[in-house]
Amino acid sequence: MKSLFRSLSAATLALAVVAPQALAQDAYPTRPIRIVVPYPAGSALESVARTVSQTYNDNLGQPAVIMNKPGGSGIIGTQEVARAQPDGYTLLLGTNQTHGANSALYPNLPYDALGDFTPIAGLARMQHVLVVRKNLGVDSVRGLIELASKPGANLNVGSSGNGSASHLVAEMFMRSADVKMAHIPYKGSGEVAQGLLGGFVDVSFATLPSVLPFIKDGSIVALAVASKDRAPQLDSLPTLAQEGVRDVEADAWTALFAPAGTPPAVLAKVSAVTIDAFKDPGVVEKIAATGFVPEVSDGAAFKAFLAQDMQRWADVIKAANVKLD
């Protein structure tokens, strides 16, 4: 009898612990959800986060609040989410930098890109565009390679930071085309665009969202896309492969992550709402208008992609011998 009583008591206690947790997951969310964007306010990445999260209020019953936490190549904001309670109320807009290049560039990275996070959904990818300042005097990839190959050319290539995707793509291009240009790291894609407009930067592999308006108004000259396919927003612009420069395909991406340990029911709920948002043509059009290629995937599919992409960036960094100062 005592044994039976102890068994019943233990079962009752277990139910008393599990039941509130299950109810909390069913009720989720009961307060606003924070989405941390580890980059400065006003970026195209923030625009993607806002566009998708605006659907949360209608479909989850709670709004999403965008929190910009820039600094350290995205490390500061990413680390904050890694340390957050895994309850679904603090999420991360991650990128190929926070969950790709950083792991290979920083030996003492204060988070594990794979172990500390669970992907919720892939959102979009960004194509890099080979652009030059308007008065450089070239209008083709071949013309740029010929100019850069001349003795005393002294061209420079601007990037959004040492070890950034735009830096790594530039290194890939210089190796493939057998040319050299002096690397100038800036603090963000906005500064690179301003450098091109001001004539301080000769060449850049810029993310399309950061330069699309300037390409359209003719103040920056686009030569090619560093991607497997042409940019939907600039369908007459060739790819580098089409211009004879091979093996320079490096799209950036953005995805939504939760801290590891977030309940599966919560992950499923946020993932479903996020993926459903892309069924709205208005959401897709708004994301595409900023220069992104909308490309949604569920958490499982993105996790498989992520492991491969991290290795790809690690290989590029090793081959280019990129070191942080």
TrEMBL record:
Keywords: Receptor, Signal. The keyword Signal applies. It comes from the Bacteria. This is Tripartite tricarboxylate transporter family receptor. Residues 1-24 form the signal peptide. The lineage of its organism: Bacteria, Pseudomonadati, Pseudomonadota, Betaproteobacteria, Burkholderiales. Pfam families: TctC. Coiled coil: none annotated. Belongs to the UPF0065 (bug) family.
